[in-house]
Write a structure and sequence with these properties.
alpha+beta, 5-stranded mixed sheet
Length: 468
Amino acid sequence: MRFILFFIAIATISRAQNITIKGKAHASHIGKEIVLSDFTDYINYNRIKESADTIDKDGYFELKLQSKITRPVMISIRNLTGKLYVQPNFVYGIYFPAEDSTANHQEGTETTVDISVYGKDSTELNALIIDFNSQYNQLFSKSEGYLSPSKMNALLDTFVIATKKIYSQIKNPYFKNYLEYSFANFYSSTSRSKTFLYNQFIDKKPIQYSNYEYMQFFNAYFKGYLKAYASKKNGGGIYNSINAFADYRDLKNQLKEDKSINNDTIHELLILKGLIDFYYSPDFDKQQVHSVIEQLYRETIYPAHKSIAFTMLQTINQLQPGAPAPDFVANDKAGVKVNLSNYKGKYIYLNFFSSESEISQKEMQKIIDLRKKFNDKIVFISVCLDDSVKSYKTYLKTNPKQDWIILHQAANSTAKQNYNIKTLSGFFFINPQMQLAQSPALMPSEGIEYKFNALFKPRKKNTIPGVR
């Protein structure tokens, strides 16, 4: 049994990992994988897996993280996710609760849970944030009836003054910033004027790329900015800058016409935000948008923007039809590691499933007939997403007709991560060159058989005399 610290303590600085999270989970999570993840940045919001552990028979686990800054991290067990604010050189003791059985959970969606921090005092960051949010919630719970925007703003003004007084002795710089941009988000939701919000919280202030609350406000304030600007009389050239010329410099010059924002750094960040939206818009050519992002990546003088652009390009290129199929290692029922790349040179129909998902189980049943028909032409590979090896093996025993390659995602496997699986199922069709022919591929119930028929349909011999 592992020993867990039920208190917060400053840890000895480590060269390897300077944040440790020792935790206990509810008994319902025993044997499951618990994952600590973070975001690449607060424009793309791509999650990256930082640490993972399997919850032992007594409910204990340990996660580690290296970070130079204070930030929120996400701790997840399957679709249950809680947020924890962590500071460099700290050890945390936490409790991960059971799933709320009374809540209505839709399959494949993420459910928020409240993580408890053991032994925290009133000045610990998580405790301060909980206390502040509790006061804010009470502010409006006491109000009766409809509140006009002007009354809400007046109420918020009073709350801001009182709150700053309450926490005046708190020295934690992250918490001070948390307050500031929580107020900004509150005001933006009460129809406070855009000019007030810009002058108060953005203008002549540094962009806090790594601060979650600041970037939440920034993204909300500038939501849809580039598209809205393109629809204006003086912004119409944006469509030509992208679709006709794929010219980043021309696009940047277009935004300089907006005199309401006299900041080149913000202009460029807004271009980045807009481009990723434009990539998925039918009004813009994907290849042209891709080219503009590449130009920005090469030419920007801002390291944060270069990193964001690089992540965008990775996101766009990954799992697109024609892109290389990501390799991974997973275990078979004997515990032997199997590489997907072992099957290079053959067509592969890859799918992910869970024994707890009725939808993915129905699709697995339909693969039985597909395999009978195309077994000599396609390798069928399924990856079980169950946390428990026992449930995976039980599933195999109770479904003997599913006798193709069915693997189990082991604790350290990257299969789910590499294929960006967010729900309990997913399908991909891979060609013999290990490229994604269909991504995502049609499920059996959606008619993937017709794709297979078209691909492997035998050519009829020409019977017209004199014609080969």
